[in-house]
């Protein structure tokens, strides 16, 4: 028998950016916990295979077009989602992008692309969905941040600014909407291999450098996030809001050795 604290049966979860990557893992974990789904992408055809997979689990699934950089698209998506299901219980604000460049090479357009997608887009998606949540007196909003929400990395200036902003935005929205029965939290993954960063993981030297700095001695696997996303979406997190939950193998501890290893002594 399923644990009612983690059972999402009868609830509807909207997950943005589900054409690939972690968005699909988030949606799959929520579906496995019982939730019906609203999937989004800028191009509907990119959702067809994943929609079929989720329906095969016995879930009701609706795919909607969404460009988080376009206000009209956000409002249209939110209205269609409510029409389809009547109520959205869970929002996972996952859609995002990145530009990796030395800070001196970042262009005006690079900055706008990343901040408009990751930060402004997340806010206005949350705002549009929260209107219905306020009406129903219930909601779980999960903003997807990153270990860069709490740490800076060279070559990721716009991205770290956007993810740091997500953490602050999460706290602000939690304070704003808590009285309406809505919790707002930030799930912050560490270093996971995704479609966005797969090129980096092809560099064995960089992977070794990374793993040395992760206390659990490996990059994250997508399923490492399943428990966290279900926890934040479920009744079990009813008294948790405004928080950033890091799932990062411990790299946010600083993970720098203060002693010389036996190997180095030799």
UniProtKB/TrEMBL annotation:
Pfam families: adh_short_C2. GO terms for molecular function: oxidoreductase activity, acting on the CH-OH group of donors, NAD or NADP as acceptor. Residues 11-191 form the Ketoreductase domain. One of its GO terms (biological process) is fatty acid elongation. It comes from the Bacteria. InterPro entries: KR_dom, NAD(P)-bd_dom_sf, SDR_fam. SMART domains: PKS_KR (SM00822). Belongs to the short-chain dehydrogenases/reductases (SDR) family. This is SDR family oxidoreductase. It comes from Alloacidobacterium dinghuense.
């Amino acid at each position: 028998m399923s644990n009612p604290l983690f059972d999402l049966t009868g609830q509807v979860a909207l997950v943005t950016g589900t054409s690939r990557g972690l968005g699909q893992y988030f949606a799959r974990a929520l579906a496995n916990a019982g939730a019906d789904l609203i999937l989004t992408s800028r191009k509907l055809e990119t959702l067809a295979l994943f929609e079929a997979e989720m329906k095969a689990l016995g879930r009701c699934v609706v795919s909607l077009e969404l460009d988080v950089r376009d206000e009209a698209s956000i409002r249209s998506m939110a209205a269609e989602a409510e029409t389809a299901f009547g109520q959205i219980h869970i929002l996972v604000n996952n859609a995002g992008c990145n530009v990796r460049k030395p800070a001196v090479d970042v262009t005006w357009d690079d900055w706008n692309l990343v901040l408009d997608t990751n930060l402004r887009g997340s806010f206005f998606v949350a705002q549009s969905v929260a209107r219905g949540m306020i009406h129903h007196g219930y909601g779980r909003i999960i903003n997807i941040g990153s270990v860069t929400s709490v740490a800076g990395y060279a070559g990721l200036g716009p991205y770290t600014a956007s993810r740091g902003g997500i953490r602050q935005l999460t706290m602000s929205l939690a304070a704003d909407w808590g009285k309406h029965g809505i919790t707002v939290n930030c799930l912050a993954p560490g270093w996971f291999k995704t479609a966005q960063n797969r090129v980096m993981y092809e560099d064995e030297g960089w992977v070794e450098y990374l793993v040395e700095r992760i206390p659990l001695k490996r990059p994250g696997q997508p399923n490492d996030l399943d428990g966290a996303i279900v926890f934040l979406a479920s009744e079990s997190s009813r008294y948790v809001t405004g928080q950033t939950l890091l799932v990062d193998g411990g790299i946010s501890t600083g993970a720098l050795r203060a002693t010389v290893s036996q190997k180095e002594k030799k």
